Batch of 4 targets.
Target 1
Amino acid sequence: METIYIPHLLTKTERKEVIDFEEIIPDLETLTPVRGRLQVTHQGNFLEVKAKAETIVTLTCHRCLKQYNHRLRLQSSEIIWLEEKPNQHDASSGEFEIDLENLVENLSPTDSFSPSDWVYQQLCLELPHKQLCDTKCPGIDFNEDAETESSETISDSRWASLAALKRQLP
């Protein structure tokens, strides 16, 4: 997706641009291209950004460590304020105070908006925090691993001490 020069939105019909897209986002590992629709509307002193998109990603289960496919759906909207950047703080001291009002996304009214970057950020926020292949995933079966390990001969002598210690445990 091409970047949108914000002043050009003012010349468009209804001050908005609608983009239907199907593309691979470089920093997001997906099995299918990200498909969706993005709408950016200039509302005077802010941009209203809305998007619907979906793709399929491969995740690793946090319990059993198996990989599984997950359909990632995005239905998001955000307001991005258009204002010149406030005075930059001196970061050399390492500390500076930020007002709660400054914890919002903003762009310069003469800047550009990157739809690909915005969609990437929104999809990353949609990734599940708890990645489970199944709600009833039992996790790693340690008993099965112990049985196969004891029946096999240890091919690396560095593990012999650990195997001896393991046999001493009840």
Note: The helical segments are 6-9, 115-126, 142-151, 160-168.
Target 2
Amino acid sequence: MFGFKEYGNGPLKCVELKTGKVMWEKSGYGPAGVCLADDTLICLGDMGQLSLVKASPKNYEEISRLDKVINGKCWSSPIFSDGKVLIRSTAEAACLDLK
């Protein structure tokens, strides 16, 4: 996530670490968080949107999306364990079963 002070618009980017080259980017996340679960990125946007994105350097491929999972500002990374995603915001927390 590359969204410092770009609330709601900061992009999720795939960056080649060796060169710094941006392989792809998708705006609309803001300063939020992401974690990797197998070959899937679990992305939590700053306005409570949760998306699953295929972890690939080729392109942005969204697998699924929920536009408003929790209220409040979400500035932390989601946590994935045993098929569940733990998320929190300034107002709420939630555990979602992805199985």
Note: DSSP finds no helices and nine strands in the chain.
Target 3
Amino acid sequence: MTRIHFAADHGGYDLGRALQARAVEGGFDVVWHGADGIDPGDDYPVFAVRVGRVVVEDQDAGVDAFGVLVVDEANAGVVAANKVNGARAVTTVSPRAAVVARAVVDANVLVLDGVAYEESAWLNVHAFVTSPMEQTVERGRQILQIEEYENAGTIEGWAVQLEPEQIAVRHE
């Protein structure tokens, strides 16, 4: 079962809770990491880092997990969440963009503006957590290059020299 880690700051609290409820209704394993109520003084970086960390920890443990962060300003949440090693946070404007973010960069944290319409936001969340990464040599190599730079500060090692037999390729 797919696990979705939700959190929100004061600007995204109502929408975050509404999306959390929809995910529960949709049969997802849902964990809330935000405040218990609206706190006008809360800061988005705390929630962004928290969601990024638990998603990466779950994925490292083999759990099918994603994060959804709903904040006053989505772009700021993306920057903060991407400070977590292994988090690949994006914001999207459509379900198609959510699918592409998953397919191309294997994004694992979706960040939404708190003022988004609930129905539109839910369509983005659902598309994001139900879409796979493209299982191709090219996509695998690109993700490994990003991870190599994130961990070593360079893109010159084994990730560039990945051979086709070194990554599982899905044939449809």
Note: The chain has six helices and five strands.
Target 4
Amino acid sequence: MKSSLSQVKKLNVQEQIYQQLRENIFSQQWLPGDKIPSENELSQIFNASRVSIRGAIQKLIAQGFLESKQGEGTFVRTLTIEHAFGSLMTLISLSKRNILQVLQYRKMIEVGIAEMIIDNCTEKDIVYLRNNLEEMVSSKNNYDHAADMDLQFHLYLSKMSGNDLVVHINSIIFEIYQSVMHEVKQKVGAEAGDFYHKRIIDSIEQKNRIELRKNIEEHLDWTIEKIKEAEII
């Protein structure tokens, strides 16, 4: 029992150090290109073992926030927008609570971009969405494929906004959500997705902004309630 408690305590110390080092980067206390203190120096600063320091640093290196240069030390990396979004993959866990938060996020964004979707819509977009719906309907017995079609439908709506930021963030969010979406389809069925997707397409084609926002909101509200009812994760 002692060794188990000791291991938990050690991991907690390492996590606390990791959080503080990451905060130094995010708050720009350490700027891109800066060399961070050595393991010995950090060990003294945090009054912690070098093992805990090394573990925290290695986690930040793995996530791409730091880079180690042989014989020189460890430096803060220059982060691109794409890299920063990619780091979400390591920072977001698939707990039930976070799945619901992802859906709540999607609701805010997809309702918010409804007008841009209609403004940017082309006949080619309508054809894509209807083909996607047709394939999803025909995949009722293949929940994994139906789930993939469902996510592709919503990701395509993001692309129709014409906003690169929305597309980048949603691509990462949807990649995180994809593995869970397969279970969602099995638990709640595919019929509701078929129903709401058709209504969404119709409102886009009719350029009805109010109906589009309403349909997107109702679709995601329904999904949120079903996930709350189901034992997912």
Note: The domain at 85-229 is CATH 1.20.120.530 (Four Helix Bundle (Hemerythrin (Met), subunit A)).
